[in-house]
Design a protein that fits this description.
Elements: H1 3-25, H2 33-41, H3 47-82, H4 94-106, H5 108-112, H6 114-120, H7 123-145, H8 151-174, H9 178-189, H10 197-216, H11 218-224, H12 228-233, H13 238-260, H14 266-278, H15 283-305, H16 316-335
Helix pairs in contact: 1-3, 1-15, 2-3, 3-10, 3-13, 3-14, 3-15, 4-7, 4-8, 4-9, 7-8, 7-13, 10-13, 14-15, 14-16, 15-16
């Protein structure tokens, strides 16, 4: 690794640790950094602080790291696969499928009756419904795309499936009550603070599988940058590589959407920010850099969203978009071109 990149990675790792500590410290109740270290070694006497740190803020900070890094890497995979700067982790209908699954659970009561909501609407049912929805839509996209050879056709097919699921959600919304619509809208805002340690463990296992497939795809990703024909001449199996990249993206983005909701901006913008700063297209450098940038930006957004010293918490989706979009516009205007 180039010396400049080594220093950059060391800086980013230090910044990530600072952001994690700041995220745990800030909130409706401010907790000193020293108390956080005391809670880690088991010497903190303040029971309420210990509970807040270990059972709420630490899981939330770790969730932010997984969500930010996972969405950033998913976006990088899709932008490289489709060679499209506007591609994000949800272009294959993953988010739309998850939204449809959740809509069937929450808004289904408007169609199937009140008993449906009483029996089926729970935290785990929403997570399972989102996972199944994203899996079924992605499976449909893969089945249809297996009939085509053009990678761009897969992108269009994913967008069309997204339109179909959005139409179904609109019909369900029409027959639903205001209370059910509100519950569905709140899920759409995204949330990092609702996971227990057990749920975070399941999240991490699936996330790790997606990351392993991503690491396995590095050589293929670098080859695809030169075009599919050139990649074939290097002996790359295009169909197999494409499938591995799509599965990795679905594991990362699908699981994140199931556990944290559909979070905007991060997957689209983080790869661009990383490329502008690191000025490289080598995925051996880009993947760890996107991981760190995604985690840091998500932690910063979450720290802002929880409005320190206030009892209110803003929707994480609003903060990621409001904070991120101007940064990307500024970077692109300053550089005047996108690196690819």
């Amino acid at each position: 690794m180039h010396t400049n990149y080594t220093y950059a990675f060391i800086t980013l790792i230090i910044l990530l640790v600072i952001c994690i500590l700041a995220n745990i410290s800030l909130g409706s109740v401010s907790i000193p950094i020293s108390a956080i270290f005391e809670s880690f070694v088991g010497t903190l006497d303040h029971e309420s602080w210990s509970y807040i740190i270990k059972d709420y803020r630490l899981p939330k900070a770790l969730t932010a790291v997984l969500v930010g890094s996972g969405l950033g890497i998913s976006g990088l995979l899709m932008q490289t696969l489709f060679r499209n700067p506007l591609a994000g982790p949800f272009v294959l209908g993953i988010s739309s499928g998850a939204s449809l699954g959740v809509a069937l659970v929450i808004l289904g009561a408007g169609v199937f009756g009140g008993a449906f909501a009483t029996i089926f609407v729970s935290k785990w049912s929403i997570i399972i419904a989102a996972s199944l929805g994203s899996f079924l839509v992605l499976s449909s996209v893969l089945v249809v795309s297996s009939k085509v050879r053009d990678t761009m056709a897969i992108l269009i097919i994913g967008l069309m499936f997204g339109s179909i699921t959005a139409a179904v959600v609109s019909v369900l919304s029409y027959f639903s009550s205001a209370e059910q619509l509100q519950q569905y809208i709140f899920w759409g805002f995204g949330s990092l603070g609702n996971l227990s340690w057990q749920e975070l463990g399941i999240f991490f296992i699936v996330y790790s599988l997606g990351m392993l497939l991503t690491i396995f795809s590095i050589k293929g990703l670098n080859s695809l940058l030169l075009g599919e024909n050139y990649a074939k001449s290097l002996g790359l199996n295009i169909k197999q590589t494409r499938l591995i990249i799509i599965i990795a993206t679905s594991l990362l983005a699908g699981t994140i959407t199931a556990f944290a909701g559909p979070i905007a901006f991060i997957g689209l913008a983080i790869p661009h920010i990383t490329r502008q700063i690191f000025t490289t297209s080598n995925h051996k450098i880009l993947i760890p850099a996107v991981f760190l940038f995604g985690a840091i930006i998500m932690l910063i957004c979450d720290s802002i969203a929880q409005l320190p010293t206030s009892d209110y918490t803003l929707p994480i989706n609003a903060i990621t978009s409001l904070m991120g979009a101007p940064v990307v516009i500024w970077l692109l205007v300053r550089k005047r071109k996108m690196l690819f």
